[in-house]
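Sequence in, structure out. First:
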Amino acid sequence: MKDVFILAIESSCDETSASVVKNGNEQLSNIVASQIKSHMRFGGVVPEVASRHHVEQITQVIDEALRIANMSMEDIDAFAVTEGPGLVGSLLVGISAAKALAMAYQKPLIPVNHMAGHIYASQLHQPLQFPLLALLVSGGHTELVYMEKNNDFQVIGETRDDAVGEAYDKIGRILNLSYPGGKAIDELAQKGQDTLAFPRAMIHDNHYDFSFSGLKSAVINTVHNAKQKGDTINPEDLAASFQASIIDVLVHKTKQALLEYPVKQFILAGGVAANKGLRFALSELFEKEFPTVQFSVPDFRLCGDNAAMIGAAAYHNYCQNRLANLTLNAKPGLELTKNSEKGC
């Protein structure tokens, strides 16, 4: 079969990225222009600022992705782009660029679900083995997804309020840590002890949904009460206790899901997949209790938003002829759905 080269674009939030991916499993380039410094002063992503940065950077990252891959537009077989979920203004910048390229070079246009991209990021370092279970943990999502085959997504559990990454960022602001809060809290947690009795919401409930708003409120109340009383809370212990609560819930729900859904592979995906505490806890779970299940987590550089993961997911859409025309629009609330057909 002829090699397929896809130029992918990702602009769903605050990273402008372009990548050339070969056959869905080999990244020839992956350029990411971060906006963290611009949003740091606000303590979070400002949609209008993010959109403006995407407009400024999109052509540069595309050109650089082609240069690093040593390819021209004529060498590309199709253009892929994130259609959702994400910030509508940010998504539209990437979609507009991809549609312009598809029209100018008369090549197929492939729409990609951002969360599917996070799952398929693992495909860039080892093949996916079905059936599999994926835990998606990011700033906007916390989901357990079961897959029997490519593009066959069954969401068996999701957050009912805050996503894990969102909770990390909010607690990071309470602790006056630099944005994004996830990395800073993870580093603090490695130095502290789980000394505070924070809640483990829904941990023993007979379902796979999550809730982290109660934990967030408990941490905030603990900090405020201590300030009112003039008490001092060790920030390392606070971070360790907060992180331990989240990890306990994620690991327990994962374990219960694995008992009901026997799989060959488990994928940890999304920005929070870079969390060292979570990686260690899950690796211990599989080593001790599920040694026959392959535990797969992308390289740190592929955990955050990037275009290579979009190119990896796009390959299967391309093989299944799941293409878009020039009416493609942003879908900020796009969900993962079961949509499996024969393909590559």
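Second:
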Amino acid sequence: MSLWPLARAALFALPAETAHGLTIRGLRAGLGPRMGRAETNDALAIDVFGRRFPNPLGLAAGFDKDARVVAPMLAMGFGFVEVGTLTPRPQPGNPRPRLFRLKEDRAVINRLGFNNGGAAAAAKRLTAFRARDANAIVGVNIGRNKTSTDAVADYAEAARVLGPLADYLVINVSSPNTPGLRDLQGAGAMAELVAAVRASRGETAPPVLVKIAPDLTDGQLADICALARAGGMDGLTVSNTTIERPDTLKSDNRAETGGLSGAPLMERATRLLADAYVEVRGKVPLVGVGGIASAADAYAKIRAGASLVQLYTAMVYEGPGLPGRILAGLVERLKADGFAHIRDAVGAG
């Protein structure tokens, strides 16, 4: 871990997307930290969606779009990894440059546009990974192709190909970088979409979650949560990137279009998470994501109602030692608050 400052300086000398690609190649070549899979801590292990997660900290979608580095990321201590967003057919995404660091704000703006090699190619990699490690928890985040004329059919096809290999599926209708995608967050459109994915996911029938935007109105959130309470979905991921730009942003890249992630999203996403927790009335598990960069941030999400939490952007700034630090900090916070188990802290705030 002491090499991280040098590695970060080298990576930050490169354009953001180039650095990310180099990181993925390095991890595939075995150049990542060799800490081994984190041992299950009884205080942190939690049962969600009928699965036992060794800890509640996961890698959010976007880092490993094509399921190339699941094992190395699990070796950093993550309790689960979410791959994607994956579309039925390969697509290049939006023109470069499309990924921007906001170093002064510890944030990132992206307008990648679901660049990925397609569901079939990822399915081959996940099949090979499952043959080596059948017990690891891997979620799969799915989306539509930009040029598709039938969004529902796209999600159903992605679920058909990837569902049998997923511990859970996430319907991404909240990225701001695919035209018209967020329109699918309407209650009627979402009900149709979830039903199609459920019907196509295969005999293993993984749980189906929906990832929502932090820019929803109160009415939109209430409609989505009502659908979830009624059994329309198995969970909600709160939340994706935001198109809003807080006045506090300092970086020269703050005016770039796309979705903002990282530290500036923490308060907004956590407030939406707490509102969702009240709306679902404890009937639907929530995954909290957006702005987590420390144990304090992760614990705040859990106390706001998240059974599981995820991060990605903070890894850009904090490096591969971050998951271990967060997990150790969560154990300390549970003890300080008198909780014997992480589940006791869910919604405690």
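Remark: The first strand starts at residue 46 and ends at 48.
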